[in-house]
Amino acid sequence: MANTQAHSTTPITCGRVQRNLPAFVRGSGHAPLALVAKSLLFVTLAVVAGCGSSYRYPDELIAAGNKGDNTVHAVNLPEPAADEVAIVINNNAGFGTHAGLFVGARLSDPAGNYWRERHGEPGWERPTLRDYVEHQMVDGLRVQIFRFRLNPTDIRIIDTRVAHAGITVPLNCAAEVRAQVANVGAFKALNGKGWLSPSGLAEELLPLIEGPGAVGTCVWPNGRPCRPVVNSAVARP
Known about the structure:
The chain has helices at residues 33-48, 59-66, 114-118, 129-136, 152-163, 173-181, 198-209, and strands at residues 25-26, 84-90, 98-103, 106-108, 143-149, 216-219. By secondary structure, it is of the alpha+beta class. It has one domain (21-219). Strands 1-4-3-2-5-6 form a six-stranded mixed beta sheet, with helices on both faces. The radius of gyration is 17 Å and the shape is globular.
C-alpha cells in the first residue's frame, strides 16, 4: 500500500521544513518564530471550535483490510492530466493533517516534508500523484483526492501561482493550497483569505463535487468515490 520507510506521524505535518526545492516542487520552507506562533494560535482556535471533516472512509473497505485483503487499499490513481488540478487532503486527524496539490505534473507541497523525505531515495526522480498519496497514507487511509479539469488559461494562472509561491508559514498548508486556486475557473467561489485546516479545505471543496452542478470529483486512494457522511461534524473510519 504505502511506502514503508520510516516517517514522522506528527498530527500536523504542515509545519515540517523543506529546503533546496527544485522547480517542480514549490511552496515549502521555514518562517520566523512570530509567524509560527501566530499559526499555532490559529490552529488552537480551530481545535477549540471542533473543526472536523464530514468524510468517512468506507467501513466495508476497513473490514476487508482487517480480514487481510489489503488490495482494497491499493493506490489506483491516474496521474494528473496537463489540464487538471488534483488537491490532496490528508484527513487522518481531527481537523486534517496536510494538504497539497498538483497542477498537471507540478507539485505544490506547502510546508510539507515530501521532498525532504524522498530526495536521495534510489530510483526517485520527481513527484507523482501516486507516490505523494502513498506518502500521506503513512498517517492512515483517510486521504481524499479532489480532481478538476480546467481550461488552458485557468491552468496557466494556477501553475504560475504555484511556480512563484514563496515560503509557507508552518501549519498553513491548507490556506496556501486554497490561495493558489481561489477565484479561478472551477474555484471561483473560494475565498483565498483567512486560515483554515486541511479538513476545512475539504469541506469548502464539497459543493464543487456534489449535485448536478458538480465541476469535479473526489476519490479515495483506491479510486473509489468519496462519500460524505450526512449530519456528522466529525467522521472517523
